[in-house]
Specification:
This protein is 53% helix and 3% strand. The chain has 145 residues and is an all-alpha fold. It has a two-stranded antiparallel ribbon with strand order 1-2. The longest helix is centred in the N-terminal third of the chain and has 24 residues.
Length: 145
C-alpha cells in the first residue's frame, strides 16, 4: 500500500470518527417517561401506530444507528422533536383526535415520505392504512371531514 493511500485512509477514518462524536454530543437521544396510557380499540391499531408513527410521535423512539452520526443525527433529532411537539402519544400532548389523524394519513402527509425508505415497516398498504384510520377513530373519536 502506498503512503498516499495510507494517509487517505487515516483521514477518512478520522473524519468518520469526528462525525460520530459530533452526532452523539450535539444531539439528544432522549426518551422521556411515558405518562399516558391509551386504551386502544384493538392490538392491531396499536401495532400499526407503533410501526408507522411512534418513532416521531411518542417518547418510545427507536434511535437507529445513523441517528448517532452527523449530519443525519441533526435531521433525525429535529424530526423527532418536531413530531413530539405536535402530537405525542406518550404524554397525550397535541390533537389526539381520530378524524384529524386519519385525514393526515389519508392525505399522505403522514408518515413523512423521507421516513419511509429507512423504515419499510411504516410503509403501510392501503388495507393497513384503512384499518389504522378506522382504529384511530374508534380509539380517539372524531369524524373525518
Amino acid at each position: 500500500m502506498s503512503r498516499r493511500l495510507g494517509i487517505v485512509i487515516v483521514v477518512v477514518i478520522v473524519i468518520a470518527l469526528l462525525l460520530v462524536v459530533i452526532g452523539n454530543v450535539a444531539t439528544a437521544h432522549t426518551n422521556p417517561p411515558v405518562t399516558t396510557t391509551i386504551q386502544w380499540d384493538s392490538p392491531e391499531t396499536e401495532a400499526l401506530l407503533r410501526a408507522a408513527c411512534f418513532d416521531c410521535h411518542s417518547n418510545e423512539t427507536v434511535w437507529p444507528w445513523y441517528s448517532y452520526v452527523a449530519p443525519m443525527s441533526f435531521l433525525v433529532a429535529h424530526d423527532v422533536e418536531e413530531g413530539r411537539s405536535k402530537l405525542n402519544f406518550s404524554t397525550g400532548h397535541g390533537e389526539l383526535e381520530g378524524g384529524e389523524m386519519a385525514e393526515q394519513i389519508e392525505g399522505g402527509a403522514m408518515p413523512l415520505r423521507i421516513y419511509l425508505p429507512l423504515h419499510p415497516e411504516a410503509n403501510l398498504s392501503d388495507t393497513q392504512k384503512a384499518q389504522l384510520m378506522q382504529g384511530l377513530q374508534a380509539t380517539f373519536g372524531g369524524e373525518r371531514d
